[in-house]
Amino acid sequence: MERRGHPPSGATAVVCADDKGNGNSGTAVQVHSCLSDLSDYWSHTAAGQLVHNGDCLSQAAGRVSLQACLAGGQGQQRTVGAAKSQIVNKSPGTASGCRTVPSGANGTRLTVAKRAGAGNQLWTAPAVTPGSGS
């Protein structure tokens, strides 16, 4: 998942959703300069889950982390918004929100905020990966 644009500091940056230390379940998802390495690689399932190292991008309490993928798991299902670049939570029972970059600095943890169409919420989502449904 990649975000191009202007972070709150005003500098132009290309950053990726990155798991700290290329870890697994429980690992925080952060912003980092795109390095095209394994920590930047995400796949997208037909169920709307973003998967990294076999775990899903999940949200809880406004924070984003990797958690075990669950069929129909709340906070794990996503859709691409009308702008074609907003990745929006679509699970029932959770507040609609977008992956949000509070700061463009490497290591800043991703948060979830109400969809506003702001530059810090626009991402290039990976294409649906065939055979990766859960």
Keywords summarizing the entry:
disordered N terminus; 4-stranded antiparallel sheet; mainly beta; 134 residues
Largest sheet: 4 strands, antiparallel
| Distance between the amino and carboxyl termini | 19 Å
- The best one-word shape is globular
DSSP helical segment count: 0
Strand proportion, as a percent range, falls in: 25-35%
Strand order, main sheet: write it out.
4-5-6-7
What integer value in Å does the Rg equal?
13 Å
Low-confidence stretches: 2-12
- Helix and strand element order: EEEEEEEEEEE
User: What is the number of beta strands?
Assistant: 11
Mean pLDDT: 74
Q: Please give the share of residues in helix.
A: under 10%
Helices and strands, with pairings:
Elements: E1 2-5, E2 13-19, E3 29-33, E4 43-44, E5 50-52, E6 55-60, E7 63-68, E8 78-80, E9 87-89, E10 98-100, E11 111-113
Structure write-up:
With 134 residues, the chain is mainly β. Helices cover 0% and strands 34% of the residues. The protein has no helices and eleven strands. The strands form four sheets. It has a four-stranded antiparallel beta sheet, with no helix packed on it. Strands 1-2-3 form a three-stranded antiparallel beta sheet, with no helix packed on it. Strands 8-9 form a two-stranded antiparallel sheet.
